[in-house]
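Hi Y.,

Following your request, here is the sequence exactly as I used it, all 256 residues.
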Amino acid sequence: MAHHKMSLWKKIRNIFAPPSASDEKRSLHKVQDLIGYQFHDESLLQMGLTHRSYSYATGSTASNERLEFLGDSVLGLVIAEQLYRDHPNMHEGELTKTKALLVNESTLADISKDIELNQYVRLAREEDRSGGRERPSIISDAFESIIAAVFLDGGIKAAREVVLRLIYTRKEDIVSDSSRRNFKGEFLELIQARGEGFPRYDVVSEEGPDHEKVFTVDVYIGAEKVGTGSGSTKKEAEQKAASVALEQYLQRSDQT
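Below is the corresponding structure, written out as tokens. Let me know if you'd prefer a different format.
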């Protein structure tokens, strides 16, 4: 009986114990195999995999938030450069749209799941149990953080090789998948690139009973209305309005 209690206690302790150093080492090696890059300083990779929930829970290590900030820019630069080189006849608006598709949250999260990178993100147990390992925002941020870690460890050449291998080789499939389109994000990038400030979305009507609401949204640049969209949610209506506005702006670019 005493032996049974000891065994049960050992199982419980193992469930709540932090990963051992050897487990951490194996995880880091596995991630390096997944992304095709071997780190000189594995602590950079470890930080890249560390979500803030894990950092707060353990109080022992920095999270990947600062790396995510850097990785976003590195990723954008590499993709923008490759698109510029590969598509000399593509207009600015189309380049912006394609880049947005390749670097958005949905794309990065799907690639992370595809190569099983999300399985190695360091999460607090509560975050893990609540589905954090499948949450696009968490795993896409980790992806960007790892790109930054590669950049800091091996420079822009190393980061470029990883980005092109993991993302750019999937370009045709990503671009042809319309479900990935984030029209609001694409339109924002285009407007900012043109130095025209920020789009403004106004709900102009809300009709129907609660279970069948229809929202209509106008999008403005300054005082000019540039698109209108309707949908069952404000978010859907905004996306449709942005889609209309984006199409109009791209047509203007093609005509100039």
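The chain is about 65% helix and 10% strand.

Thanks again,
Q.
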